[in-house]
Design goal:
Helices cover 37% and strands 20% of the residues. The protein is α/β, with parallel strands linked by helices. The chain has a single domain, classed as Rossmann fold, CATH 3.40.50. Strands 1-2-4-3-5-6-7-8 form an eight-stranded mixed β-sheet, with helices on both faces. Strand 5, helix 4 and strand 6 form a beta-alpha-beta unit. Helix 1 runs parallel beside helix 11 and helix 6 packs across helix 7. This is Alpha/beta hydrolase. GO terms for molecular function: hydrolase activity. Keywords: Hydrolase.
């Protein structure tokens, strides 16, 4: 097993500072993998997955806290309805510039999957592989229903403390950025359709068969609309977080996909 070195990075943007972390194998081979987290996520909530991915793939793995999340600076104001596609030209671009990422693979979980699609579309010549996990392709009724349920659960006494462990005083904003943005009228017609048509690199879409935040219609649409080749893998007896629920299966799928010519 390779030794890993772990490094912390601080990325300056026009709106604030981002925290990033990298896991670097001693005998690194291949393009790096950048992870994009979900609506309530951050670097710490990836837990040991980045290290295990770096070990399994032999590649550098980089994760970062989006503005407003984890150890990054607070977000100035409310998220605009365009926040998913905006990430490609905001925090992600700053990360690539500071870490000199000229070519990369992307792995995005949930809303991070949508952002990964946006980044692959915006940097079509640099993105060599795209992996979406539990990504939403449009704002459907099932997704919105479950977000309403989660919002009510977090409103119960003590529940917000789960977020404060990772986001500190930004926790209320993090929850609102998820629930209020997705449930707003301005977001009701959102979809990835236009961005997907601009994705040229090979795509692997991973999705659990019991994903409470979206049916297989989401990965099916993602695979159908990209310009490049695509693979769809449905994980059985799996919910919204395959990399935690079926880690070995996800690692095997990613390493296989990255090794394809």
């Amino acid at each position: 097993m390779q030794e890993l070195s772990t490094r912390h990075h601080w990325v300056e943007t026009e709106k604030g500072r981002l925290f990033a972390q990298s896991w670097d194998p001693s005998a690194e081979c291949g393009i790096p993998i950048v992870l994009l987290h979900d609506s309530l996520g951050c670097v710490a909530l990836w837990r040991d997955f980045p290290a295990r991915l770096a070990q399994a793939s032999g590649r550098r793995v980089i994760a970062y806290d989006r503005l407003g999340f984890g150890r990054s600076s607070a977000y100035p104001g409310k998220l605009p309805p365009s926040f998913i596609e905006d990430e490609a030209h905001g925090g992600f671009r700053a990360l690539c510039q500071q870490l000199s990422l000229n070519q990369f693979a992307l792995f995005g979980h949930s809303v991070g999957g949508g952002m990964a699609v946006g980044c692959a579309a915006a940097y079509a010549e640099s993105c060599r592989r795209l992996i979406t996990e539990s990504a939403q392709a449009f704002a459907d009724t099932t997704t919105l229903k479950e977000i309403r349920v989660a919002g009510r659960q977090f409103a119960m006494p003590g529940q917000l403390e789960r977020l404060r462990r990772y986001h500190g005083e930004k926790s209320e904003w993090v929850l609102s950025a998820w629930v209020d943005t997705w449930l707003s009228n301005a977001f009701s017609q959102w979809s990835l359709n236009e961005l997907l048509a601009k994705v040229k690199c090979p795509l692997l879409a991973l999705h659990g068969d019991h994903d409470e935040y979206g049916s297989r219609q989401h990965p099916e649409r993602i695979c159908a609309l990209v310009s490049g080749p695509s693979e769809l893998q449905i994980l059985h007896d799996c919910g919204h977080v395959p990399h935690r629920e079926h880690t070995e299966t996800v690692l095997a799928a990613i390493t296989w996909f990255l090794a394809l010519r």
